[in-house]
Amino acid sequence: xxxxxxxxxxxxxxxxxxxxxxxxxxxxxxxxxxxxxxxxxxxxxxxxxxxxxxxxxxxxxxxxxxxxxxxxxxxxxxxxxxxxxxxxxxxxxxxxxxxxxxxxxxxxxxxxxxxxxxxxxxxxxxxxxxxxxxxxxxxxxxxxxxxxxxxxxxxxxxxxxxxxxxxxxxxxxxxxxxxxxxxxxxxxxxxxxxxxxxxxxxxxxxxxxxxxxxxxxx
Length: 218
What we know:
The protein is of the alpha+beta class and 218 residues long.
C-alpha cells in the first residue's frame, strides 16, 4: 500500500540502536530541511492548506484528503474516519494545532515524488533509534536541570538528536533527555520531536495533490 511504501522509504535510514552518548561526544545534528520550494505546484498547495488550517477551515482540509487517507495503524482510514477522529467542526478539536505544527516543520520528497513532513521524520538518520531518540527543533534549545522554566540551564541543543531518559513522573509538557555526558536534563516537549510523532504524506494523483496519510506511531 502507498502508506507502507512511503513509510518504508521515509524511515529506510533508521536502524535499531541508540544515539551515541559516550563521554564528551557531541550529539549528532538534524538540521531542518524543506524541499517544498523545489516543486512550485506542491509549494502552492501546501501554502493553501496552511492557510486553511490557520482559519480552521474544515471543508478545505477535507477537500485535500485522498479518499482512502490512512489515519492509524489500527485500520482507520477515509474521510468519514478522519471526521470521527479529529472532529474538525468542534471548538476543542486538536486537529488545528497538530496539523499546523507538522506542516511548519518542512519535509522532503522521496524518489517517487511524494512529499513527507516533517523533516524530522523524512530525514531521520541511520543509527538513531526512532523509538528512544528525539531531535531538537531549534538552534538554542535549553536543557534544564529540572522540569521547570526556572531551573538552571545545563546545556543547549542545536538541532541535536539525543536519547530520551526515563519519562516516569515527567510532566507531559516536558521531555527527559540524556546528554552526551550521561547527565539527564529536561526540555520543553514543544522543542523536541520524535520521528514517529504525527507526520503527513502527500502525492499527486491525476494532477492533483492530496494527503495520503496523517498519523502517528508505527
